[in-house]
Write a structure and sequence with these properties.
Layout: H1 5-14, H2 17-28, E1 34-38, H3 46-49, E2 54-58, H4 62-74, E3 78-81, E4 98-104, H5 113-123, E5 124-135, H6 143-147, H7 156-165, E6 169-176, H8 178-190, H9 198-218, E7 225-231
Helix pairs in contact: 2-9, 8-9
Length: about 240
């Protein structure tokens, strides 16, 4: 029986170690000591956040959370919580006194993203930061987004407005992954495939260090994703 497309995609992305390291570099430059990861999935980035004074991995999918619990047993600082971030129940996590919320390629899957952002704001200590990576550009929306159950791709102005409406101050907002945008457009809009081809992902992973240096040097004028750092103001 064929594995669901979302699961297969997560598995393929988890194998892209150089791309993962690139994203982790952005996150680790901003992350504090007490972190909540929203939508931890299979733990691809959870492992990059360890060790930490405190790390809470929030994941509503029971299959994924059971895998995360294997990691939890090895790291006393890690707790796995099965929760939906659009439900107010997750606000109980305010007891964790977190200074950072990490949300990577998750917000687009949430129908009520405004509620999710409001809950992030509630959970953060004053001066804390939400680190967000989301798919960019509505005109790139295609079959890949549909089969991954994306509700949207974000325009830069839209993300800025939603983050600000939740109470945050936008500290950074930039495009990310210029060259990946070309592959997404080709596969999602032209070829209209259901899943990113494994061969293309492997090639992109090999070239990722080159793309990483180019983007660090020039700063992409456009890209497949948006990277945002949003701060909760001090009282």
């Amino acid at each position: 029986m064929r594995e669901p497309i979302g699961e297969e995609t997560l598995r393929r992305v988890a194998e892209m170690d150089r791309v993962t390291a690139w994203i982790a570099e952005l996150v680790l430059a901003e992350a504090g000591r007490r972190v909540i990861e929203v939508g931890a999935g299979m733990g691809t980035f959870t492992t990059r956040l360890l060790p930490r004074e405190r790390l809470v991995a929030v994941e509503p999918n029971l299959d994924h959370s059971s895998r995360l619990r294997e990691l939890e047993r090895k790291h006393p600082c890690l707790s796995v919580v099965e929760a939906d971030f659009t439900h107010d129940d997750c606000r109980a996590l305010s007891a964790e006194r977190c200074d950072t919320i990490v949300c990577l390629n998750v917000l687009e899957h949430i129908a009520d993203d405004a509620r999710a952002l409001a809950n992030m704001y509630h959970l953060l200590a004053p001066g804390g930061r939400a680190l967000l990576l989301v798919p960019a550009l509505r005109r790139l929306f295609g079959t890949l987004d549909t089969f991954l159950y994306h509700h949207r791709r974000y325009e830069m102005s839209e993300l800025a407005e939603k983050v600000s409406a939740a109470g945050f101050v936008v500290k950074k907002l930039a495009y990310f992954n210029l060259f990946g945008m070309v592959g997404w457009w080709w596969n999602a809009r032209v070829r209209r495939v259901e899943i990113l081809p494994a061969g293309q992902l492997a090639l992109y992973n090999r070239l990722a260090p080159v793309f990483r240096r180019i983007e660090a040097w020039t700063g992409p004028p456009i890209g497949q994703s948006l990277w945002a750092v949003a701060e909760k103001p001090e009282r």
